Amino acid sequence: MRVVPVGERACLVEVEDAAAAASLAASARAWRIRADDIVPAATTVLFDGCDPAEVEAALPLLDRESPGDSGASVVLRVSYDGPDLGRVARHWGCSTDEVVARHTGTGFTSLFCGFAPGFAYLGGLPAELAVPRLDAPRSRVEPGSVALADRWCGIYPTASPGGWLVIGRTDAVLWDAERVAPALLAPGTRVRFEALR
């Protein structure tokens, strides 16, 4: 891990991947590292409103000890009728029913948020199920669209352009500024999908 100061009261800690970033952020929160905000990303963790020297001094403890599994758990009900469901089935060499079974049988974890408020990058797909993005992004993807790209799963919180493969849709409200915690799938949240019948 490498610590990069960002001004006087913040620093970025560079890590190997998104899973390591999520783990470091969860550990830092559990061990109550003094920072106004701790934000994981794909290969970094931002400690904002902190003493960078204190963060750097705490890293050996955070790297060595795990705080345990303390994230919330969410089940999302999905209509698996997305326009790219067949494309994913062909890529995986299986039927669309098997795509649904694999997707609902996978435990996902929100590793970080980005792209749009409430958009969580959900890790959990094994490498052999990685899928390519569309060659040309759609100009509009509907809110609630459940989509895959590479080894990620994500749900579009609002209508926006997007190049991920859409396999279904959910009615879950992913971002609500009026909620105490606006993002439904904050980093650390465990996510399971359930097929609507």
TrEMBL record:
The keyword Lipid metabolism does not apply. One of its GO terms (molecular function) is hydrolase activity. Keywords: ATP-binding, Hydrolase, Nucleotide-binding. InterPro entries: CT_C_D, Cyclophilin-like_dom_sf, PxpB. The keyword Nucleotide-binding applies. Residues 1-185 form the Carboxyltransferase domain. This is Allophanate hydrolase subunit 1.
